[in-house]
## 1
Amino acid sequence: MRANRWFTPWLLVLPALVWLVAFSLWPSINTVRLSFTNASPLGGVSQWVGLKNFETLLADPQVWEALLNSVIYMAICLPLLTVLPLLIAVLVQQKLPGIAFFRTAFYTPVIASAVVVGLIWTWILDDRGVINEMAQALGVVQGSVPFLTDRWLLLLSAISLTVWKGLGYYMIIFLAALGNVGKDLHEAAALDGAGSVRRFWSVTMPGVRGTMTLVGILVCVSALRVFSELYILTNGTGGPGGQDNSLVMLIQQYARGFTGNLGYASALSLLLFVVTLIPMLALARMNSKADK
Amino acid sequence: MTNTTTTEPALGGARGAASPTPDVTGATDAGRASRPNGRDGRKRRRAVWGVMSTREKVVRYVLLIVVLFITIGPFLWQLSTSLKGAGEDIYTANPSFIPTEPTIENYLKVAAAIPVWRYIGNSLLVAAIDVFGNIVFATLAGFALARLQWRHRKLVLGLFLATLVLPGEATIISQFVTVKDLGLADNLVGVALPGMIAALNVLLMFNAFRQIPEEIDQAAVMDGANAMQRLRYISLPAVQGTIAVIAIFSFIGAWDDFLWPLIVLQSPQNLTLTVGLQYLQGTFATDQRMIAAGTMIAFIPIAVIFAVLQRFFFKGVEEGGVKG
C-alpha cells in the first residue's frame, strides 16, 4: 500500500490557495489600509491621511442618498423575490409535458448579462418605447412617463429589472428545496382531502421555510450590491444629479480617471462590507433562534 | 387468511391487472358490496395526487405562458427591433412583433460603429482562461479537501468558506490595485486573472467529491492506487456533472461580467463585449435598432450555449449541487 506523501494535498490545493490569498484575503486587508490613504487610480505616491476619508464619507450627501436607495431597493425586492420565485418553482416542479422548456426559458434572464438586459429595458422603458407608446394609445397616461429620467421612477425601473432578472435564479434555489419536501407528506395531505392551495400552505411552506430565509438574505445582500442595472439605465450618470447612485456605483466612479480617489473608494468599500454584514448577521440570529 | 387466497381469484377474476394486490375486504361478508367502493377510492386518490385534473392542467399552462411572456417577451421584442429596417417605424403605438421586412443591416452597422469582432475575441479570451482555470484548479483543490487526509485540512477549508462572506464589490478596488501592481491594468489577462479560481467553485467541487462513498476509495487504496490515480479513475468520473456546471457558469460569468472589466480596461481596443456595447448607447443614442442588434450579439451566444447544456445544469440542481 503506497502512502500519500505529505505534500501531495498541499500541491493540489496550492494554486487555489494562492488565488484565495492574492485575490480575496490580501485585498480585504489592503482595502482597510488603502482607506487611510489618498491613493490615486493614476498611480504615484499615496499619502496617509488618517480618518479623513471616513469623515468625508459621513458628511457626503451622495453616500446617504445611495444608502437610502439601497434601503428602498431592499424593501421592495425582499418580499417580491422571496415569494414570486417560490410560486414559479411550484409551478414548474410538476413534470408536465414541455416543462423543461419552461424551466430553461424562465432562467434566461439570469444567464443574460446585466448590460444586455439593461439595454433591453432601456428601450422598453424609453420615452418612445413600447410601454409608453401603448399606454398613451390606450389613453392610460397623457404624455410619456419619465421612467428613465425621474429620480424615483428610475429607481423603481431598476428595481423592476432586478426583480425580473432574479426570478429565475431564486426559482432554481426553491426548486432544489422543493425536491426535498417529502412526497409522502404531500400524498398524505392529498388523501386527507387537502387541495393544492391548502397543501401549499400546510406542506410546502413549512418545508421551504429555511430556504426562504436563505433567499431573503441573498436578496438583501444582492440589493445592496446592485450596480449594472443602475449604471446602464442611467447611462453611467447615476440619474438626475447623481441621485440614483448605489454604493457600488460610487465606488466605481471614484476608481477611475483624474478625479478618482482609491482611498475614498476603499472607505466606501468598507462601508459596503459592513452594510452587507447586517442581513447576514440577521440570518445567523434567526438560525440560532430556530435551533433553540 | 387461507379463505382469502382461495376465494380471491374466483371473485376478482374480472378485475385483471387493474388491482394486482388482493383486497382483504373481499374476504368479509360485505365483500361484494365494498369492492366497487374500493375501486372508486383508488381512482379518486389518483385524481388528487399524480394525475391532475384537466382544469388544473389548463390553469397551470396558462400561468406558465404568462410567466413565459414576462421572462422571454423582452428578449423577443429586442430581437424583433434589431431586425427591423430603417423604413419600418419602431416608435408606434401598435408595433408589430414580426418585422415587415427583416434585415441584418443593423448588425452590419454595429460592426461598423464598434470593433465588435475584436470585442467578441477579447470576451472569449477572458472566458477561456476562467473556464480552464476553474475546471482544473477547483477540481484539484476540491479533491484534496474532500478525499485526502492531511493536517490543516479543516483550516484551509474554513478559509475558502470565509471568503464567501466577502461581497466581491467590496474588494474590487484593492483587487484593481493588485492587478495594477502586477502591471496588468488595461490588460485582458488582468481581467481574467482574479476569476480564474473562484472559492465558490472549490467548495462546489469539494461538495461533489464528498458524496462519493468512502469505501470505494478505501478499496482503491488497498489495491495500491495513489492519490492521483484515485482522482483520475474513481473520483473524476463521478463528478462530471458538477464540472459541467462549473464550466457553464465560469463561461457565463466571464462573458457577462461588467463592473470588473469596466474598472480594469481603458483602451478602446482592449474592451470586452459588455463594456464595448456601452459605446453604442453613448455615441448613437437614438439608433435603437443598432443597440438592439448589439445586445443580441452579446446575448445569442450565451443563450445557445445554455440551451444546449441546460440538461446538465438542471440535473445538477436535482442532484442538489446548487443549493446555495
## 2
Amino acid sequence: MRCALLVAAIAIAGLGGCKSSAREVVVYTSVDQPFSQPVFEAFEKQTGIHVRAVYDTEETKSTGVVNRLIAEAKNPQADVFWANDPVRPFLLIDRGMVEPYAAPNAAGIPAPFKAADGTWTGLAARARVLLVNPKKVPSAEQPRSIKALADARWKGQIAIANPVFGTTTMHVAALFTAWGDERAQAFLSDLKANDVRIASSNGEVKRLVATGEVAFGLTDTDDAHEALEDGAPVEVVYPDQDGDGTPIMPTVVVLLRSSPHGETGCQLVNYLLSADVETMLAAKAAQMPLRAGVPVPKGVRSVGELRAFAMDYPSVAKTMARIQPVLRTWAGL
Amino acid sequence: MCGRPWQERAAVALAGAVLLASVAAPLVVLAADGVHADARAMLTAASTWSLLAWSSALAALVTAVALTVGVPLGVLLGRTDIVARRAAFLAHAFPMFLPPLLLALGWFHLFGQSGLVGSDATARILFGPAGVVGVLGLAFAPIMTALTMLGLDAIDPSLIEAARLLARPPRITARILVPIAWPAIALGALVVFSLAFSELGVPMFLRVRAYPAAVFARLGGVDYAPGEAFVLVLPQLAIGAALLCIERRAIGRRPLTVLGLRRDRLVFALGAWRPIATAACWAIALLGLAPIAALASRASWRELGSWLGASARNGLIDGAVAATAVTAVGLVIGRGVARAQAPARALDALAVLAFVTPGAVLGAGLIAVWNRPATQLVYGTSAIVVLGYVARYAVLGTRPIAIALARGAASLEDAAATVGAGYLRRLVRIVVPSHARALAGTWLLAFVFCLRDLETAVLCYPPGGETLPVRIFALEANGRPAVVAGLAVLHALITAGVLALGLALLRARRTW
C-alpha cells in the first residue's frame, strides 16, 4: 500500500509536467498524425517552440477536433487548427471563432485556395479517388466515375467510408450542393441498393480494396498513396475527369480567436504555409502542392492536371450541417 | 458510540463531491442541453429502438459466449487439479486488461483477408456481427471466469465434504457449486452485458452497427450535439439502472461475505480427465493470447520511439494518480456500502451508472463543466483525464473494497470507537492496515483499467497529453501497420509488467 501511495505521489508531481510552458503553441489537427507530427517536429527544431498537439482519430476525421474546438469555444485552448479538408473550418468561421491572419507565406498560395480576408489559407491538397483492385476489376471495366459505385455490375463489391464522418461527409455534401437534394438522395439510395460496404474510415476502404475484399472503393489520394507505398495490388482512378471532375481538398490552416499563445500561433501558421511543408507533404503523403515551384514527386498529380469538382466551400459547409440527419439515417445511426 | 461523527460525514461528503463533480455535474449539464433537443422524437423513433434492440441482442450474445467459456473455466480453474491452473488463469485473464480495440486489431492480423491464417471467408466472419460477438465474448470471458472462481470461494467446504459422500464431482458442481455461486455469476453476466453494450471501438472497427455509435455520431459528426447524445444515452442509463436493481435484488440481500475470498478451498481431483481438461483450459487461455501474438509477429521496433512520444509515460502517470483517487474514494464509499449506509449505497449507484455511461458522453460533459478560466488548472492539464478516469472507474474501487471490508471484523473498529477513536483515526490505524492487501489489489485493478482506457481520454486529453491507447487509435488507420502493431505490443508488455510487479508485491506482502 505504501508503494502505491509512493507511486501516486510521484505521479501527482508528474501531472504538473503537462502544464503550459512559455514558448509553446497548441494545435488541433485532423491531418493524419503520421504526416502532421513530422511537420510539427520540424517546426520545433527550427524555432525552439514546443508544439502541443491534439490529433483526430481516423474514425472521427475530421470532425472530432472541430467539435472539441466548438465545445471549448468559451475558454479556447488551441491557437491553430489545421484541417484536412477545406470545408470544416467554415463551421468555426461561421461561429466567429477564427482570427483573420494574412501570413507572409500565404502570398505564394493561389487565390482560389485562400480567403481574401485571411480567415483561412489552404496548402497541400488531396483529391477524392477510386482505389481499384486490378485482380477484381479487368482493365477494360475499370470505373471512370463515382457513379460506378451504384452500378449493379459491382453489387456488394464496393466500399465507401461512413459519410457521417471524415472527408466522405464533405464529398456527399458537395454532391447535394451541386446536384440538389433529390438527385443526391437517389444516388445514396442506389448505393445502398448496391450493397455498398460502409467502412469506418477512408483508411479502412484502402484496406478493403488492398486485400481484395471489395473490387474498388472511394477514398482519398493519401490513402491511395499509402496502399501503393505498401506494394498493395491497387490502381488509382481520378474519377469523372470527362465530367463533373473530382473534389480537390486542400488542407486548411486557421488562426483561432482568443488563442492562448497568439504570437507563436502566428509563427506556426506561417510555417505551415511554407514551401518546405508543402514539399514534405508531397513527398510523404502524396499531397498536391498548391504553390508554384514546389516539386511534385513522381506518381503525384499536380492540381492543374485535374478537372476539379466545382465547390463553394462555405455553401458546402452549410449543406454538410443540414444533411446530417439524412446521413445518419442512411448509415443506420 | 462513534467518536467525532463529523469526520465520517465529512469524508463521505468529500468522496461524494468527487463523484458529483466528475459524474453528476457533467451528466446534469448535458441533460440541461438535452432539454433543447427534440427528445420525444428521438426516443420514439423506430430507428432508435431497432438499433437499441440490435445492440442489446449483440450484448446478450457476447454475454452468452462469456458465460459459456467463463463459467466452466471458472469451475475447472477454481476447483479442480488442472495442471498449472494459476498460470492458466493469468494467461486467460490477461486480455481482459487490454483495450478491446487492440484485441480486435490482433484478430484482424490473424483472420483478416491478408492475416496470418486469413482468407476471404474468415475476413467476412470477422467483419460482421459474429466477429464482434467472438472478439468481445473472448475478451470479457475472463470476467466470468474470475467471478465464478470468486463465487465458488464462498462455499462452505463442509457442504462439499458432505456431498462427496453421496455424489460425484460433476453432480456436485451442477447441484451445489454453480447454484451457490450464481449471484457472482449473475453479477459477472451483468458486468459483461454492460461492457459489451457500451463498447464503441470494436463494432466500429468491425463495421457493425451499434447503439453507442449512434450516440457517438452526435459527438463526432458535423452537428456537435451533446444534448442529443445525452438523450440517446437515456435508454442506456435506464438499462444500467435496471441492471443495478437486478443486481441489488439478487445479491443485496445476501451478505457481501458470500462473494468469496475464503482460503479453505477444496479441490476435486479430475483423475483420468485431468490431461483433457488441462489441455482444454490451456487451449482457451492461449486462444485469448492469439491476437497479441499476431500483433507481435507483425510488429516493428524501428522508429517506435518517435511514434511513442510521451504517451506511455502520460498513461502511467494519469493512471497512477487516478487509481489512488479511485482507491481513496472506494475506501470511504466501500466502507459505507459494507455497513449498508444509504448515502454510500447511493454514491455506489452513481458510480455504477458512470461505468455504463459511454466514455465519449462523459468526456463531453467533463468539457462542458470544467473548461472554464477558473478551472484551467484542471482542464488545461492531465488532471482532466484523471477526473474522467475516476468518474468511469470509481466502481472498481467501491465494490472490491466493500466486499473486503464486509469480510473483515467490524468489531475491531467498533471497539476503537467506544474508546473514543475518531473515524479518520480508525480508518488510518485499523481499516487500512487490516485491509492493506485488498486496498493495494484494488489500486492495481483501477490502475490497469485506467491504462487500458480509450474512450474517456480520447475526447478530453490535454494537448500533447495523449495516452498510449489514444495514440494507437489515432495511428491505427494511417500509421504503418508494423509501427501500430509495435505500439500495441508495447502496451501489452507495459500492462503485463505492471500486473507482474503488482502481483509480486502483493504476494511478497502476504502479511498485509
## 3
Amino acid sequence: MELLYVGLAALGAGLAVLGAGVGVGKIGGSAMDAIARQPEASGKIQTAMIIAAALVEGVALFGVVASLLGVLR
Amino acid sequence: MTAHKSLVIRVYFTLALAILPLFTYAQEHNEEHSSIEEAEKEFNATEMIMHHIGDAHEWHFFGEGESSVTLPLPVILYTENGLVSFMSSEFHHDTTGHTVVEKDGMRFVNLHEDIYMLEEGAEAVEFDAEHHPVNASKPWDLSITKNVAAMFLTVILMILFFSVGLARHHKKSKQAPKGFNNVLETLVLFVRDEIAIPQIGEKKYMKFMPFLLTVFFFIWITNLMGLLPGAANVTGNIAVTVSLGLFTMLIMIFNGNKDFYKHTFWMPGIPTWVKPILAIVEGLGLLIKPAALMIRLFANITAGHIIILSLIGLIFILENAGIAGVSVPFALFITVLELLVAFLQAFIFTILSALFIGMAVEEHEHH
C-alpha cells in the first residue's frame, strides 16, 4: 500500500512536469518567433514571456506539492 | 527620499519583522513521529532531506548526535503559566524526546523539532500505537528558530546595504555612488523601471515602491543565503511565503479603487445573470492570486533544495563512491541553476505583486 502511494505520487509529479514542459515550450517558442519578427520589442516580449511561463510553472508546482504531500503523508 | 517615504519603509519593515516570526513555526510537520527506540543506523534519504529543508530550534553546521557543531538558539514558549524561555542547547541535540528539560516546574521535550510540554507528573513522553505522544501537548512556540535567525540576518544585511549604505550616500552627495552602492542602485532602478512603472503606471508607482523593493531584496537575499552550505531554507518554508503573499493580498485589497471592485463583483457589459457567477469567480481570484504566489515561491525553492540533496543522497543510497563522479557535477550544475532561480523567483514574485496591485489601482476608461 505504501509503495502504491509513493508510485502514484511519482506518477503525479511526472505528469505535472509533462504539462509544464509543453506549456513553457510553447510560450518560449512563440516568444522566439515574436522576437524574430520584431527584435526591437525583445525587452517587452521577454518580460511578458517570463510572466506567462511563471504562471504555467506555478500550476505545475501545485502538482509537485500535491505529490510531495502524497509521499510525506 | 522624503521623511514620509522613509517612514513608510520603516513601517513595512516593522510589520514584516513583527508578523513573520509568528508564522514560521506554525506549519505542521508531515514526518511521522518515530518511537524512542534506537534510531535506525541505515541511511534514510527522506529523513536527511527533511532535516535539511525543515526548520529547527538550533542551527546545525556539521557532525552527528552528541558531537554536532551547532549554534544554540533561544526557545520561547507560551504556556498556560506564561512565557518560558531557555536555550535549545539544553536538549543536547536530542530530537527524539529522550532529554527532558525542566523549567518553572514544567517539563519539555523536543520531538522532531516540535516542542511538547509533558502533563503534570509525567517523567517521560509516552506514545500510542501511531507514535503520537499521549501525555504531552504542544504549547505556543514563538522560538527564534533557525529560519527566524536567518531572517534577522537578512534584515540586518538589508539595513546595512540600504539604510546605512545607499540612503546615507544619497543624503550626503548628489553624485552617482561608487562600488557596491552603485550595484545596489542599479538593482533599485531595475525594480523601478522594469517592474513598478510598467505594471503600476507612472502616476501611482511611487506609493508601492517601498513594498516592492523590500520583497524583492528580502526574497533574493534569503534565496541566495539559503544556497550556502549549512544555511536555513527560509523561502522554502510555507509559513514565510504565506506571510509574503498576505502582504500582497492586503495591499491589493486596501488599495483597490471603485472601478476595481466594480469589475470584480459586478462586471459591467455582460448579461445580468452572468454577473453573480463571475462575482464568485473573481472574488475567489482575490484569494487565489496571492496563494499562487505563495505556492510558486515555496515549491520552487523547496524543489531546488530537494533535487540537490537527492543527487548527493544517491551516493549513499547506492553505497558506491563511483556515483559521486556523476552526481557531484550534476549537483553543482543544479546549484548554479539555483543561483539563477534565486533571482528569477524574487523577480517573478515582485513583478506579479506589482501586476496585481496595478490591476487594483488601474483607472478604467468609461465607455
